[in-house]
Amino acid sequence: MSDLLTSYEAIVGRDVIGHLEHLAQPLAGRRVVHVNSTKEGGGVAEILHKMVPLMRALGIETEWHVITGSPEFYQCTKTFHNALQGNHTAPREQQLAAYEEANAAFAAEYGAQLVEADFVFIHDPQPAAVIKHLPARRGKWVWRCHIDIGSPYRQVWRYLYRKVVNFDASIFSLPEFSRRLPHAQYIIPPSIDPLSEKNIDLPAGEIRGVIDQFGLDPERPLVLQVSRFDRFKDPIGVIEAAQLARKFAPLQLVLAGGGASDDPEGAAVLAEVKQAAADDPDTHILLLPPDAHRTINALQRAADVVVQKSLKEGFGLTVTEALWKGKPVIGGDVGGIRLQITDHYTGFLVRTPEGAALRMRYLLHRRDKLKSMGERAHRHVLENFLLTRHLRDYLALMLGLVNSTTDRLLVGINHGRY
Amino acid sequence: MDTEKTAAIATPFHVRDCALITLATGVRAISLRELAEGARRVELGSIYHHFWGRLLQPMFDEPEYNNDFASWAYWALHDKTAAERLSMIDPTEYGDIEELRQVLVDTIEARLDESGQLIWAPADSQFHFLQSQIVVLPTQHSVAEPGELAGLLPTLPAGSIYYHFIDARRRTAASLDDFSAWLSESPGDHAALLDRLGGIDPFFSSLQYIREMLAQVFHEHYAGGAR
Predict the structure, then answer these.
(1) Considering CB atoms only, which of A150, A187, A334 is closest to B22?
(2) Which residues in chain A are closer than 8 Å to B45, comparing Cβ atoms?
(3) For residue B143, which of B135, B134, B152 has the smallest C-alpha distance?
(4) Whether pLDDT at A185 is above 70
(5) At A287, which helix (H) or strand (E)?
(6) Under 8 Å CB-to-CB from A184, ≥6 apart: which residues?
(7) How far apart are CA A171 and CA A124, in angstroms?
(8) CATH number of A3-191+386-402, picked from 3.40.50.2000, 3.40.50.1000, 2.40.37.20, 3.10.310.40
(9) What does the pLDDT read at residue B7?
């Protein structure tokens, strides 16, 4: 067994790893290619950074490529992102041309490899048009949609639908995010990597160092939201909530975020957030580089309460990260946050700044509840949202795709009924 | 240990594990009426999934209602009466899934007739009919005689419990769980153990609780040595 698998076994146990090995056995030597639009920043890249080596460790030949393009390409895909989440906005002609051009260029550069691959996972809309340039593809192509497209702006969805129908299957994080498509639609929630820099255990001294680095007071409660500076994450609402809660608890608020290289809107939102917090010495806006994983880890571990007050959310991996660290999370009552937070059990679901303020106050006052909810939160992630479960689902899906449509697959079983 | 009986058991019990991979059907409901219509239209695998497959989905040990239809009626429609009635549908009482489907539809329609009003769920809280594929895998565990299960059961993953205690009932003509089927085919008198296994309710529990109950039954039966 590889060192990588051994290190995961220490966390999830032998049975889980044995499960993966059995599933991967029939897929050994198969070629898999993942395509997305950024190597750094955002949940997709973080998952792929570990998913790819794990697939390789299980004997599957796995590659990862990134589609790139002009600034118009990124503006187009950001507009897609917003429109698919319900905003009535559409890319301009010039931006669409840049999108088509980037996809054509990618297909030209990597076409030979993609055509020969047994499985191609295309992540999100950015590379979704590559498929139409490769009619000679011989493997199974899967569109992995990480965002909520349950109520998209129809004009943009119609455009993307014409690309997506060409795939052999789609994957959505939640049933609510799926659209009616003429192929199999798998439901696979994403995951976090317990061994990544963002999630591994940290020495107390390192956590204290980060508190000092940002001028935080270790004696006062710390409330944290980690996310891109994006309007869907409602950073202004979080500032309002903290200001309301501060009447009852002397809390410090940290809004920590990085920009992703495929998000041109981040700077504008950051400026709005800085303005909203301008006169508030207890609100700390931290713009962190994309590789500040240990810093984010330390902040999450230092926090008393973590907030993710999203107005729209694909899944909310920052919620998963905080739950893994034993922190109850106050989350927006939307999307994948609902799958992770059971109200009053692993945290609270809220719809308003007032609701978030109420729950901040409650958790900071009731430390016993904070602790018991945090313990349940950690167990919930261990059982359901670690990378090993995610990989298991991918392997099962790949086996399902190559074994026609039967609803029962026996893997590595040659004898007896039980 | 009764070595004579142990030697007589020829077939070892190979413990298996399983994973469910969930698929959307594209069928949704926003009211009880649409729920009944969807339940009539979807494949039987979807009805099965919402009664049984949920046991392998992310949830906590004590779900408030026992199937997805009941949970949705409560959380999305706030119709507690419907939730209670749907929750009392026990799938183990029905010979096949088609019969279960009919009971489900009848229960929903009876509630519609009774309530006189149609309650709508919020747009972002619709019921999504799902179905699943099951992938069955070997594990490193096998036992040669029943008493060994007493020590092994507490360590088994939820997927093994699902496969051998839940899924088995639709694989076998007699609708038995695998443990009971194996004991029935094994030499020796296992009537008392079979009786106790038959008393474990497979539906009104979580997999973790079923595992505890199974382990307890085997442990108590074999306490003091294999029979």
Answers:
(1) A187
(2) 407
(3) B152
(4) yes
(5) strand A283-287
(6) A168, A169, A170, A400, A401, A405, B23
(7) 10
(8) 3.40.50.2000
(9) 46
Residue A61, phi then psi, degrees to nearest 5:
-75, 110
Min Cα–Cα distance to chain B from A372, Å: 14
Cα–Cα distances (Å) from A303 to A61, A194, A207, A234, in that order, read: 40, 18, 10, 19
Q: Which residues of B touch A176 (CB under 8 A)?
A: 124, 126, 128
ipTM for this prediction: 0.84
Q: Is B203 exposed, middle or buried (0-12, 13-18, 19+ CB in 10 A)?
A: middle
Model confidence pLDDT, tens digit, residues B183-213: 998 888 899 999 999 999 888 778 888 999 9
CA trace torsion A43, A47, A49, A54 (10° rounding): 180
The domain A204-384 is classified under which CATH number: 3.40.50.2000, 3.30.300.30, 2.60.120.1140, 3.20.20.30? 3.40.50.2000
Q: Which residue has the tokens 């190597």?
A: A39
Q: pTM for the whole thing?
A: 0.86
Pick from B14, B26, B140: CB nearest A180: B26
Contact A328, A337 (CB under 8 A): no
Pairing of strands A140-145, A169-172: parallel
Of B79, B108, B130, at which residue does a domain stop? Answer: B130
